[in-house]
Amino acid sequence: MKAVILAAGEGTRMRPLTAARPKVMLPLANRPMLEHVIEACIKVGIKDFVVVTGYKEETIRDYFGDGKRWGIHIDHVTQEKQLGTANAIGCAREYVNGRFVQLNGDMLVDPTHLEKLIQHNEPAVISVKAVENPSEFGVIVTEADKVVRIIEKPLDPPVKTVNAGIYLFDTTIFEYIDRTALSPRNEYEITDSMQMMVNDGIHVGFEPLTHVWLDVGRPWDMLDANKALLEKIKPKCEGTVEPMATLHGDVIIGEGTIVRNGAYIIGPVVIGKNCDIGPNCFIRPSTSIGNNVHIGNGVEVKNCVIMDYTKIGHLTYIGDSVVGYGCNFGAGTKVANLRHDGKSIKSIIKGKRVDTGRRKLGVIMGDDVHTGINTSINVGVVIENGSGTRPGEVLMQ
């Protein structure tokens, strides 16, 4: 059994976070989300992987190499142009000679589901999930133990069962990939390939997904995924905690990190290597702090993803935010994270305002952003890489 993991896309909806790296290399609980996918597969005994790369693929290849660090083997194959899921899976055909699991590198999946999936014997099996908003997904119509129809994002969905983007295939799929035509989105869609299999009378099975499944498609989805992963951590301290610091719950502290007196940390929280935390700061649950991060005096951080080499100056507040690499918060920077009128927060994706559906969301900050002292940032603001603010500036969306 092999796993083919698609990791070729940029993740344009995740901009500016993906300006310097592919989406699958964004950190969740201080490790790339692709690593969490690989580890879920390892837990069910899969040791051979094909990772399909494309956008800024060197970051993936440099980090994972041939997989020896995890006791596995990884083949990397390039998708020259991002022409859809069928095209991406087709790139792996030379590395596959039997059944294989196919996953996307930007999702969280429970190993329990993979264990059930690989028990199937059909030529193709699709993972399905019941959701309240099926029109945003590919809808899967089933009958008895097989799939009878796949409908991409219908306006009036006949059922609430959707495609979870996790499959089991044998090599029959490649024949149908070769026959797949361009979709209206100008891509070769694996769901079109599978619909042809159904039309030809091939038994396409399905496996309901009842465990954790999170598709990280938008920047704020990282907060949900990060929280889900942190809920599973076990406390560990490889750094130094001064005697007047307080740690509650499950907290991981990396090698070379110092937590200074007066720091108050409520887990689950993970803090990376060589960080300087405090004194007198408050780190609240569901926060991951990368390597070489400085959090100063009087800082409060809550439910955030803070990436490597970021510095958060004293008297700063950040909540429900995703902060890129190498940012610097001037003293007294405040990030609003709750609309006071009770409505859901809007943010920007690909230049358009979208409803996040969230009542709490702070800032989405790219890499190397610097804020002047006493900067105020309103809810849902997106800040591009390399930007800066003046002292006392107010940022509105």
UniProtKB/TrEMBL annotation:
Top-level taxon in the UniProt lineage: Archaea
An MF annotation (GO) of this entry: UDP-N-acetylglucosamine diphosphorylase activity
Pathway: Nucleotide-sugar biosynthesis; UDP-N-acetyl-alpha-D-glucosamine biosynthesis; N-acetyl-alpha-D-glucosamine 1-phosphate from alpha-D-glucosamine 6-phosphate (route II): step 2/2; Nucleotide-sugar biosynthesis; UDP-N-acetyl-alpha-D-glucosamine biosynthesis; UDP-N-acetyl-alpha-D-glucosamine from N-acetyl-alpha-D-glucosamine 1-phosphate: step 1/1
Lipoprotein keyword on record: no
Domain Mannose-1-phosphate guanyltransferase C-terminal positions: 265-383
Catalytic activity: alpha-D-glucosamine 1-phosphate + acetyl-CoA = N-acetyl-alpha-D-glucosamine 1-phosphate + CoA + H(+); N-acetyl-alpha-D-glucosamine 1-phosphate + UTP + H(+) = UDP-N-acetyl-alpha-D-glucosamine + diphosphate
InterPro entries to which the protein is assigned, alphabetical: Bifunctiontional_GlmU_arc-type (IPR023915), GlmU-like (IPR050065), GMPPB_C (IPR056729), NTP_transferase_dom (IPR005835), Nucleotide-diphossugar_trans (IPR029044), Trimer_LpxA-like_sf (IPR011004)
Gene Ontology biological-process annotations: UDP-N-acetylglucosamine biosynthetic process
Class of the enzyme per the UniProt entry, highest EC level: transferase
Segments forming domain Nucleotidyl transferase: 2-231
Keywords assigned by UniProt, alphabetized: Acyltransferase, Multifunctional enzyme, Nucleotidyltransferase, Transferase
EC numbers on record: 2.3.1.157, 2.7.7.23
Similarity remark: In the N-terminal section; belongs to the N-acetylglucosamine-1-phosphate uridyltransferase family. In the C-terminal section; belongs to the transferase hexapeptide repeat family.
Identification of the protein by name: Bifunctional protein GlmU
Organism: Methanomethylovorans hollandica (strain DSM 15978 / NBRC 107637 / DMS1)
